[in-house]
UniProtKB/TrEMBL annotation:
UniProt entry keywords in alphabetical sequence: Dioxygenase, Iron, Metal-binding, Oxidoreductase
Alphabetized PANTHER family for the sequence: ALPHA-KETOGLUTARATE-DEPENDENT SULFONATE DIOXYGENASE
EC number: 1.14.11.17
Top enzyme category: oxidoreductase
Pfam families in UniProt: TauD (PF02668)
Stored InterPro entries: AtsK-like, TauD-like_sf, TauD/TfdA-like
Family listed: Belongs to the TfdA dioxygenase family.
Protein name, as recorded: Taurine dioxygenase
Molecular function terms, GO-annotated: taurine dioxygenase activity
Domain of life: Bacteria
Residues in TauD/TfdA-like domain copies: 40-295
Family matches, as SUPFAM superfamilies: Clavaminate synthase-like (SSF51197)
Species this protein is from: Amycolatopsis lexingtonensis
Length: 305
């Protein structure tokens, strides 16, 4: 049966807001690749670079810290190979970027600032969803430092998506539609699948749902960044539920675009440092029933605007 043109247009409108399917070349802002204190190897056009020439066991000089911060802003996630560091050295490195935060829903390492992810056959991982860490806080984390302690024989990669590139590539009418909107973020949807209900209930008064802009401005680069995620964003303020759900589904899908992503294969001694204000990430859960153990340190952030 043939479909007339108006019906086809209506179908397209039903699938994406404003018919916002964009094929062809993407708008990609490629960062610089030259730094004075280390070398980098980009892993994609816009996000993710391996850093060579930095020993994370050693304190950072002010000059090295400043240049690593510039590289972090440029590439959004930095990778360090062959780093035989302790939890204390991991914390010391992260502390160069500010106060460290704790997470009440994830088991601790050797102190409150270290969260430990022990994924085994009996306790599989649930981080295989595109998300931004702790957007349920009024001030979500600035960034995180993750190191793998035990790596499965195959699989267990992590992916990151550049959410400034995702925003840049939205159709103009969609950008106009979402600029100025706010959305509600709540820890319950992200943790209720695998957490003790009593633990979740205990923190409801301390961490009520919060509102953040759908599009935030990065406080250091000034770039506009899409700031909703499937794990913690529940609805858009001021829209009816159907419209909110439809728009959020469309915005969540932007992280799935391969041109905005980098995928990192872990080895023993690998460390990743990412800008939580500019990225989403996804822990690929393809290693079950093998063991994957990681420790993460998060750096306290500021209120999105």
């Amino acid at each position: 049966m043939s479909v007339d043109l108006p019906a086809r247009i209506q179908l397209r409108e039903a699938v994406t807001p404003a018919g916002g399917i964009v094929e062809g070349p993407r708008v990609l802002r490629e960062p610089p690749q030259t730094y004075a204190h280390f070398r980098i190897r980009p892993l994609s056009r816009v996000i993710g670079a391996e850093v060579d020439g930095v020993d994370l066991r050693e304190p950072l000089t002010p000059e090295l810290r400043e240049e690593l911060n510039r590289a972090l802003l440029d590439w959004k996630v930095l990778f360090f190979r062959d780093q035989d560091i302790t939890s204390a050295q991991q914390r010391a490195f992260a502390a160069n970027w500010g106060e460290l935060e704790t997470n009440p829903f994830i088991p601790k390492g050797d102190d409150d600032a270290v969260t430990r992810f022990e994924r085994t056959a009996a306790m599989p991982g649930y981080e295989n969803i595109w998300h931004v860490d702790v957007t349920w806080r009024p001030e979500p984390a600035l960034g995180s430092v993750l190191r793998l302690i035990e790596v499965p024989p195959v699989g267990g990669d992590t992916m990151w998506a550049d959410m400034a590139a995702a925003y840049d590539n939205l159709p103009a009418d969609v950008r106009a539609r979402i600029d100025g909107l706010t959305a509600v973020h709540d820890y319950l949807p992200g943790f209720d699948r695998f957490s003790d209900p009593a633990l979740l209930a205990r923190w409801q008064d301390r961490f009520p749902p919060v509102e953040h802009p759908v599009v935030r401005t990065h406080p250091e680069t000034g770039r506009r960044t899409l700031f909703v995620n499937q794990a913690f964003t529940t609805h858009i303020v001021g829209l009816d539920r159907d419209e909110s759900d439809r728009l959020l589904r469309y915005l969540f899908l932007q992280a799935h675009t391969p041109e905005f992503q980098v995928r990192f294969s872990w080895r023993p001694g690998s460390v990743a440092f990412w800008d939580n204000r500019a990225t989403q990430h996804y822990a690929v859960n393809d290693y079950h029933p093998h063991v994957r153990i990681a420790e993460r340190v998060a750096i306290a952030g500021d209120r999105p605007f």
